[in-house]
Amino acid sequence: MTNNSKSQKIARRTVVAQVQDKPGVLSRIAGLFRRRGFNIASLSVGQSELPGLSRMTFVVEGDPDIVGHVAAQLDRLIDVVSVEDITDQNIVWREMALIKVRATPEIRIEILQLANIFRVNVVDVGISSLTMEITGDTEKIDSLIELLRQYEVKEVMRTGRVAILRGTLVPGGPDGAFYAVAD
């Protein structure tokens, strides 16, 4: 393998962090990623179950030899309370998107039928547009957007990935572990 072909490989990791909910935290995290040459492919941030803490879900891309250490590097930042790379664990993840599409009265029924197939929530109807909310994996959202292009997609807003460890299926076992079913 040549050095050039190795540099073209990209690894993707899903990392969840609990951080202090205060100004400048995201800037410091982004600075760390920039210095290390990581690309933030997806970032979602929101309040956690604990007052004063936010939970961040990152999908980070970069050199496979380096990006695997992103959790350890984040853990060194003072505002990071806890961090875990959950890529190789048993997780539940989703993205959400709001999609505004041109929807004149003549084509609105077609678009609503398509929305029904994808189990989409229509959240706004205007004279010449329709806005829908879709939740699912990247492929599901991409597929709907691609099918809606024939009607003219006016605007798309995506959240990026949010993820959480699946609950344990074994009493006393850790969340996020894979278990084989015993006979």
Short description:
The chain is an alpha+beta fold. It is 26% helix and 38% strand.
Keywords:
single chain; 183 residues; alpha+beta; Alpha-Beta Plaits; 5-stranded antiparallel beta sheet; 4-stranded antiparallel beta sheet; 6 helices; 9 strands; disordered N terminus
Structural description of this entry:
The chain is of the alpha+beta class and 183 residues long. The chain has two domains: 10-89, 2-Layer Sandwich (Alpha-Beta Plaits); 92-162, Alpha-Beta Plaits (2-Layer Sandwich), CATH 3.30.70. The protein has helices at residues 3-7, 25-36, 64-67, 70-75, 108-117, 138-148, and strands at residues 11-20, 39-47, 53-62, 80-85, 91-102, 121-125, 129-136, 153-158, 162-165. The strands form two sheets. Strands 5, 6, 7, 8 and 9 form a five-stranded antiparallel sheet that branches. The protein has a four-stranded antiparallel sheet with strand order 2-3-1-4. Strand 2 (39-47) and strand 3 (53-62) form a beta hairpin.
The beta-strand count equals 9
Integer count of domains: 2
Share of residues in strands? 35-45%
Assign the structural class, choosing from mainly alpha, mainly beta, alpha/beta, alpha+beta, or little secondary structure.
Answer: alpha+beta
CATH class of the largest domain: Alpha Beta
Helix content: 25-40%
Encode the helix/strand succession as letters: HEHEEHHEEHEEHEE
Would you give the CATH topology of the largest domain? Alpha-Beta Plaits
Q: What is the CATH H-level superfamily of the largest domain? A: ACT domain
- Radius of gyration of CA atoms, rounded to a whole number: 20 Å
